[in-house]
Amino acid sequence: MNTPTPHIQAKQGDFAKTVLMPGDPLRAKFIAENFLENAVLVNEVRGMLGYTGYYQGNRISVMGSGMGMPSMGIYSYELFHFYEVETIIRIGTAGGMGDDVKLRDVVLGIGACTNSNYAEQYGLSGTIAPICDFELAVKAMETAKRLGIPVKAGNILSSDLFYDGGKGKEQWRDMGVLAVEMEANALYLNAIQAHKKALCICTISDHIFTGEALSSADRQTSFSDMMKLALETAIG
């Protein structure tokens, strides 16, 4: 095993089989301190904080992924291939695009459309449609129903661009895409290639077309429904 890696200082066995991955490392710290018991810091290389602890007696890890598909691509690849992680659940923020998507809504990304060339590395003769793990998605839906958390499920868009002025978003919305974020496509492709499991659960932090938005403090600390759903799904 090639551990530690250039990006993760953890030793073999430091990570649980399931890792929750917010983009923001400070959100990983928040989850470890507020949701996990006996959490231990296992990575802080480049400030990308990672912790392993227990949730209701089940061993769980949480680590930041950074922003964008290149960063998610690196960390999820290393976790899948070098640390024997079996499941990664991305938890993060997304910009709403669908007309029925509101602030603080929880969205399950069943498929991850993209404007990225991340999949070019596989040399495929066509266009792959990256999707989450089906059993994990079903488990998340069942868990959400049990917890009384309303969720929307469908296609999301993983974009390489944050400051694009909303160009082309109307076309994605018209094709039924619910929200836009920046990491799920790379995560799903890495999981598919490694024969592992992945799911993206996002909370709507702003809306592309209405202009509504939550503050940065709200984004970091107020997504308890999403965090609870991810944790319960992970141990379910």
Computed over alpha carbons, the radius of gyration is: 17 Å
Low-confidence stretches: none
E-strand count? 9
- CATH-level-4 superfamily name: Nucleoside phosphorylase domain
Helix and strand topology:
Elements: E1 18-21, H1 25-35, E2 37-43, E3 50-55, E4 58-63, H2 69-82, E5 87-96, E6 106-114, H3 134-147, E7 151-158, H4 169-174, E8 179-181, H5 184-194, E9 197-207, H6 216-221, H7 224-235
Helix pairs in contact: 2-5, 3-7
Protein name: Purine nucleoside phosphorylase DeoD-type
Binding site for phosphate: 23, 27, 46, 90-93
Site (Important for catalytic activity): 219
What does this structure look like?
By secondary structure, the chain is α/β, with parallel strands linked by helices. The chain has a single domain (18-235), classed as Nucleoside phosphorylase domain (Rossmann fold), CATH 3.40.50. Helices cover 31% and strands 27% of the residues. Strands 5-8-7-6-9 form a five-stranded mixed β-barrel, surrounded by four helices. β2 and β3 form a beta hairpin. α2 (69-82) packs parallel to α5 (184-194) and α3 packs across α7.
